């Protein structure tokens, strides 16, 4: 893994005894001690994640909103300043190149966050698609750190590290909103977003300040039994929350229609790349939740059957630490997407019963 990029927090992870794994062009913490303990900490108290492998592309200029309307499947020009929107970028045939979040920082400025393994592709496509627009693009990925605090105590942990009236900003921030703020003396973009199914925040900041802020967050979170958490816990958390992962649920062989995102462009007036392939398209498959009725968990690639006939394939699956039974996401023929259907999955040559369920598998309780 010597040729892989290191996070600006790599030395901190080494000090914490992390086990590392390749993720796109990066090497990132898979776990620190026990991934189940890290998962449960996020569900019960809080977890601290290094997400510095994610990309950051800044879009500035008088036509920034119009450019993103053209480049992505959603309408970005209408979202208010300080708000965020989840969307997708597709190729001309409608295949998903990435799913990403865009934050509107000003009337003429956005921060777009692609996935780690797709940042280079998104950057290339943005540059191609910006040719007819008055915009300036800057790839800030390698100079920006991203730290997340996720879990029911996340708000309190962040609030403990701000001064004066900024506590009101932290506590009053809505989901999918963002604001510049000073946390533990470090200037960040604070966003109430995440990928775990819990409340939480993501903090964007320069690499040079990453260790200082990580230490401050880890120290503040110790009072609430917060644990540093790696990609293994992040994956099990997002699966329980029914959130897709690029490269498993999403890819160029599936369109936003199959991914359940047709609503993003259902009333969109602006032209966008992929419109001709997507508008009016009937889904060829659907992403469906499966609950295992036995103890064995279906894994990625397991075939799904209905009365002996193959009807799809599992894209992600594992035992759910929170729910206590196996769960999976699968691409199935649309007629098998309704909750309550009895199906079977092939696990090492033996068929095991599952049933289709509504997503998400887990929804955080009101607190």
UniProtKB/TrEMBL annotation:
All residue ranges annotated as the GCVT N-terminal domain in the record: 9-267
Domain of life: Bacteria
Enzyme Commission number(s) from the entry: 2.1.2.10
UniProt keyword terms in alphabetical order: Aminotransferase, Transferase
Family: Belongs to the GcvT family.
Assembly and interaction partners: The glycine cleavage system is composed of four proteins: P, T, L and H.
PANTHER family: AMINOMETHYLTRANSFERASE, AMINOMETHYLTRANSFERASE, MITOCHONDRIAL
Protein's name according to its UniProt entry: Aminomethyltransferase
